[in-house]
Design goal:
The chain is mainly alpha-helical. It contains eight helices and two strands; from the N terminus they run αααααββααα. A two-stranded antiparallel ribbon has the order 1-2. The protein is elongated.
């Protein structure tokens, strides 16, 4: 059976997943998958691809568990059923925080703290007898940033 026959088969509805499985099982890039689509694959390779696709489509097993890895922030991490798979939204959030911190590094640190402190003080509601306690707790909050 040829790669193109598998890709064009109506039996496989999740084409993106199928492409990733074929690339992984055959050890080829996505570019090679399409430029070498007339390549014959062995019956054992086809069975492995079909079994993995079945695990994904019917067994609802996450693709990352089938592949055994996930790409996160440009780094490949090993995953298995005991691992939480990072969501793409988490990657976007980390990138946004990194950009924000980079932007903040352009401002002298005492100005950034002053601006944040002013914003917090402006948030106090008049007549709230516990606002000073809340403000004290907010000012004692610390954050640790880890370079990933």
């Amino acid at each position: 059976m040829k790669i193109i026959d598998i890709l064009q088969s109506p039996s496989y509805t999740s084409k993106n997943v199928l492409e990733k499985l074929i690339c992984y099982k055959l050890g080829v890039t996505k570019e090679t998958l399409f430029t070498d689509s007339d390549r014959e694959i062995s019956s054992s390779d086809f069975e492995r691809i079909e079994s993995s696709y079945h695990d994904y489509h019917v067994g609802k097993k996450p693709l990352e568990y089938i592949l055994g890895f996930v790409e996160f922030l440009g780094v490949r991490f090993h995953v298995d059923s005991a691992t939480l798979i990072p969501r793409p939204e988490t990657e976007y959030m980390i990138e946004a925080v990194g950009e924000m911190l980079q932007d903040m590094s352009q401002v002298p640190s005492n100005q950034a703290v002053k601006q944040e402190g002013t914003k917090q003080m402006g948030d106090k509601q008049s007549g709230d007898e516990h606002a000073d306690d809340k403000q004290a707790r907010d000012n004692n909050t610390k954050a640790t940033i880890i370079d990933v």
